[in-house]
Amino acid sequence: MIVVVAALIKKEEKVLIARRLTGDKNVLGKWEFPGGKVEKNENEFEAIEREILEEFELTIKAKNFLVNNKCEYPDKTIDLRLYNCEYISGDFNLHDHSEYQWVDKEQLLTYDLAPADIPLAKYIVEEKI
Predict the structure, then answer these.
(1) In the chain, what is the greatest distance between 2 CA atoms, to the nearest angstrom?
(2) What band does 75 get if pLDDT is binned at 50, 70 and 90?
(3) By CB neighbour count within 10 A (0-12 exposed, 13-18 middle, 19+ buried), where does 26 fall?
(4) Mean pLDDT, residues 67-76 taken together
(5) In terms of pLDDT, which residue wins out, 61 or 11?
(6) Cα 56 from Cα 93, distance rounded (Å)
(7) Are 57 and 92 within 8 A, CB to CB?
(8) What are phi and psi of 50, to 5 degrees?
(9) Cα–Cα distance, 49 to 53 (Å, whole number)
(10) Using an 8 Å Cβ cutoff, are 60 and 88 in contact?
(11) Could you tell me where the beta strands, DSSP code E, fall in 21-124?
């Protein structure tokens, strides 16, 4: 099981999602909540803050855990863990994504999301996070 953290970053009632450009073939071209793998000797809060800095050059503060989803891909199982995060500073500079969008929560499920991200998006819509 691979633990992956994802960030829920909101701005003016919109949610940040990004289209994957690099990495795992199961998610290439799919929209996702940005994030990445937890490395050895780091906690999940540190991991999500590091990943967003690496992938977007944005500084965020991980506030609290929201929900997770265990998803089986053909070659692995991931535990995708969503954290509520606060934007602190920085301007977007994409490294692992081809584009990003701020979307209305109600529109999340109209995007071609990575399979592991779909239950997280449903949670956001249903719980009105």
Answers:
(1) 38
(2) confident
(3) middle
(4) 91
(5) 61
(6) 5
(7) yes
(8) -65, -45
(9) 6
(10) yes
(11) 31-32, 35-37, 59-73, 76-89, 97-104
| Residue indicated by tokens 């089986």 | 72
pLDDT in tens, 87-121: 999 999 999 899 999 999 999 999 999 999 999 99
Sign of CA dihedral 62, 64, 67, 71: positive
Distance CA 62, CA 22 (A): 24
How many residues appear in the chain? 129
Can you read off the two tokens belonging to residue 42?
A: 């780091």
Task: Determine if the pTM surpasses 0.90.
Answer: yes
**Cα atoms found within 13 Å of the Cα of residue 50, Cβ hemisphere only:** 14
| Separation of CA 73 from chain center | 17
